[in-house]
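Subject: complex prediction, re-run

Hi both,

The earlier run crashed halfway through, so I resubmitted it with identical inputs.
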Amino acid sequence: MNYSQGSEIVSNATTAKRGFPNPLQWIGAASLGLFSEVGRLFVFFLKVMATAFTPRWYLAQVWKQMVNIGFYSLPVVGLSAVFIGAALALNIYEGGSRYGAEQFVPSIVVLGITRELGATITGLMLAGRVSAGISAEIGAMRVTEQIDALETLSASPFRYLYAPRFLAAIIALPLLVLVADIIGIMGGWLVSVYALDFDSTTYIRNTMDFLTNNDVIVGLIKAVVFGAVIATMGCYQGDRSEAGATGVGRAATLAMVGAAVLVLATNYIMSTLFVEIGL
Amino acid sequence: MTTPILRLENVKKSFGQKHVLKGVDLEVQRGESLVVLGGSGSGKSVMLKNALGLMTPNDGKIFFDGEDVTKSTGKTRAKMRERIGMLFQSGALFDSLTVWENVSFRLLQADRMRRKDAKERAIETLKKVRLGPDVADLYPAEISGGMQKRVSLARSIISKPDLIFFDEPTTGLDPITADAINDLIIEQVRSLGAAAVSITHDMASARKIANNIAMLYEGKIIWHGPADIIDNSGNDYVDQFVHGRADGPIQPAI
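This time it finished cleanly. Structure:
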């Protein structure tokens, strides 16, 4: 597959009048570039999906990536979640106290964490840690001809490299989100009990009474989608990486930024959808 | 006449407006060691990647053992690659795998051989390139550049291929190590009875390993003949290249 053709069209158009680009030409070239990039990313995503859900699976690679993506992300996800939960409780208390509604802190914290922040914070942290890492690793393999070597040794990079990362991410993200949910709620409880003088038993009871299965399920569904986004962006940018340290660095940056923006965008789309269907 | 193991017929490859290969015609017979010479940026690596199926030509045909593999995919391509070995310029060893796992990668992944048997085969093959079993469990980053080339050579010959490609096999090595790699290439290619296509701009290497030499210039093969007449080729371009002169029809790439 030649991924470079679209950018060449754009490059030719933008450089036609070097120095003084025609605004219409510039808009046209930028639009073409955007559409061709989205198209290439979508085709790449479909190819990764097709290889991830059909045999042959490299299970040792999937396990290795699960450890890398899941286990080694636990500290960053846990720390982020505890601080987000704590800050959320403080802000809800501050806002609620203006209307005498401080008692809603436990319910809003649990709702905010499980439906929204647990998954989003995990997604954003992993966009930085995992998507950029995958991109840098695959980019380095691309520029040192290791991916060409894989193909000559009859191993498809989609099956051997990309599908295991994709599968590992969509399995590990929900598990990490569960951990983030628990630790985030705990962060809210800690601040509420030790700084805002809430009664511990009442806080926990209110949390448990308000929490529904749907709240947790919503976060887990989001986590699966974020896992797919993070792995796909990392593999895609790494696969397209240009030669040299600059090329690999640029690929890692693009992967991280792209994954973070897509996490937030898909989060909004899913939240709207879940509200519409009453989940 | 026997069917050549590899035949390139009017192969063209462009990247946007840049025409790298402008109609390459080349034949490699079984057991032949062909060296393709050419300056930096002359399209040697692109030609090799097209022959290997890592790139698809814009025009022209590629035949492997008589079969048109220009646009082959799936099992046809996998079958072709089973019979081809490749030594990359950078070695292209997988950083995350040990030396023996690199050498036996095809056996483990494509042939699904048991790890114990694959390791034995890897150690046997490492011996052929003068590396002891002590390096088998090391990672590529823990061995020298010359040793990495040997490991890469071991990886390219372990499945006893019919055709081996060597991409700048001696680049980045000191003259003594480079000569040792040349000796190993000759020895292994002869013992396998395989054909070899090497691309290089190292004349010492070319003189040593080639039966035949071809010269690629501006996207075309401009000369093809026996290695022993390379000094009397009668071609000004080849003469300039062979003698490494800045003056002549080829403009230095600076």
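Chain A has two domains: 1-54, 55-277.

- K.
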